[in-house]
């Protein structure tokens, strides 16, 4: 830090300074500057005022003043992840059809949702998105260094847009329905590709596969606020 | 039923309420009918109400209000920590702490182990029953 500047004219009481106006003139050395410049205090040359351009007045004004909304440059960020939720952590899902299932967390998508997988062979949970709020992060970690999740994003999980069919007979509808119910083979392959290295990592820790296959439930005497996850 | 654990200088007690909950302390002096001066190697010497102390069986040999160094030396000589951890009360507390710190995966492994053990015991019992029946 710079040393405290010495004030030439301290304030003794609010409103009363130590040195008088004439003494201050002498103290500041204004007499010496004047002497150096031949009796006059040096002044900057006056700047020419910029020429004012007269804007042409528009011919038509709108009848009412329309208020312009304020500009908003905010860019939403993905939700902040809890410290307990890191890639490779085993999570316990709390709601939905997979409630109680223990699942491996892969990465956070740009929407803020968490990308998880069972793995499918172990507990039937496929590659899926889940909200951080409905999840408990345990302290058990799985090694996911061998898994490549770069191709998954929110669009992958979006609802497939169906082409609008013109109003047809009921027979048409039945035929269409049967086509759409099965998962496309591509998604099944993606699941297998993600799960293969994961299963290998699971085998290396004893009981971990059985752990992921079992559901979590509160038993008698378990107090969630006292449990260490 | 005579009393066996007395409040005396050198009595080791367990703190059962307050900031120092769970610590083993030594009664170093008695202030009045309700309070004692207690000290421990890892805390500043302070007063404590007897209601906050649970007396243990362990007693060490010290003079009234010893210096910290003398207290620590006496505790080492009497091996307070070792005696405590061997006593059934001390062992119970250690087990409680361990159970409370179990992680979700640990609890799962514990459940599997209990089931396996019960299975083995049941098998042996079935064998013995068969022998008796035959």
UniProtKB/TrEMBL annotation, chain A:
The organism's taxonomic lineage, starting at the top: Eukaryota, Viridiplantae, Streptophyta, Embryophyta, Tracheophyta
Ribosomal protein listed as a keyword: yes
Name of the molecule in the record: Large ribosomal subunit protein uL6 N-terminal domain-containing protein
Stated family: Belongs to the eukaryotic ribosomal protein eL6 family.
CDD domains: KOW_RPL6 (cd13156)
One GO process term, biological-process aspect: cytoplasmic translation
Pfam family, one: Ribosomal_L6e_N
Domain Large ribosomal subunit protein uL6 N-terminal: 4-47
Keywords: Ribonucleoprotein, Ribosomal protein
Native organism: Salvia splendens (Scarlet sage)
Highest taxon of the lineage: Eukaryota
GO CC annotations, alphabetized: cytosolic large ribosomal subunit
GO molecular function: RNA binding; structural constituent of ribosome
Ribosomal protein among keywords: yes
UniProtKB/TrEMBL annotation, chain B:
Recorded GO MF terms: mRNA binding; structural constituent of ribosome
Domain annotation Large ribosomal subunit protein eL14: ranges: 45-117
Keywords: Ribonucleoprotein, Ribosomal protein
Lineage top rank: taxon: Eukaryota
InterPro entries linked: Rib_uL2_dom2, Ribosomal_eL14, Ribosomal_eL14_dom, Translation_prot_SH3-like_sf
GO cellular component, one term: cytosolic large ribosomal subunit
GO BP of this protein: ribosomal large subunit biogenesis; translation
Presence of the UniProt keyword Lipid metabolism in the record: no
UniProt key word Ribosomal protein: yes
Classification via Pfam families: Ribosomal_L14e
Family: Belongs to the eukaryotic ribosomal protein eL14 family.
Name under which the protein is recorded: Large ribosomal subunit protein eL14 domain-containing protein
């Amino acid at each position: 830090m710079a040393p405290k500047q010495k004030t030439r004219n301290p304030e003794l009481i609010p409103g009363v300074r130590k040195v008088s106006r004439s003494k201050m003139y002498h103290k500041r050395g204004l007499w010496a500057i004047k002497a150096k410049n031949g009796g006059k205090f040096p002044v900057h040359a006056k700047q020419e005022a910029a020429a004012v351009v007269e804007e042409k007045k528009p011919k038509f004004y709108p009848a009412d003043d329309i208020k312009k909304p304020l500009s908003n440059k905010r860019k939403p960020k993905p939700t902040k992840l809890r410290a307990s939720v890191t890639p490779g952590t085993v999570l316990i899902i709390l709601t939905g059809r997979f409630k109680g299932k223990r699942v491996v967390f892969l990465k956070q998508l740009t929407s803020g949702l968490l990308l998880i997988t069972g793995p499918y062979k172990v507990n039937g949970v496929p590659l899926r998105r889940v909200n951080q709020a409905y999840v408990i992060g345990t302290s058990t970690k799985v090694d996911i260094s061998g898994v490549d999740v770069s191709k998954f994003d929110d669009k992958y999980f979006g609802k497939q847009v169906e082409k609008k069919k013109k109003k047809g007979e009921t027979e048409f509808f039945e035929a269409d329905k049967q086509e759409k119910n099965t998962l496309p083979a591509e998604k099944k392959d993606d699941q297998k590709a993600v799960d293969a290295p994961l299963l290998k990592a699971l085998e290396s820790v004893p009981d971990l596969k059985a752990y992921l296959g079992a559901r979590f439930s509160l038993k008698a005497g378990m107090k969630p606020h006292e449990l260490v996850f | 039923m005579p009393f066996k654990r007395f409040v005396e200088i050198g009595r080791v007690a367990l703190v059962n309420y307050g900031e120092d909950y769970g610590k083993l302390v030594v009664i170093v002096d008695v202030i009045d009918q309700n309070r004692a001066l207690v000290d421990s190697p890892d805390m500043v010497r302070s007063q404590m109400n007897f209601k906050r102390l649970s007396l243990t069986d362990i007693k060490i040999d010290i003079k009234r209000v010893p210096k910290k160094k003398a207290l620590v030396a006496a505790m080492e000589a009497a091996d307070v920590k070792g005696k405590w951890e061997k006593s059934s009360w001390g062992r119970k507390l250690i087990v409680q702490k361990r159970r409370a710190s179990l992680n979700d995966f640990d609890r799962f492994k514990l459940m599997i182990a209990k089931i396996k053990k019960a299975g083995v015991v049941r098998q042996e019992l079935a064998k013995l029953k068969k022998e008796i029946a035959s």
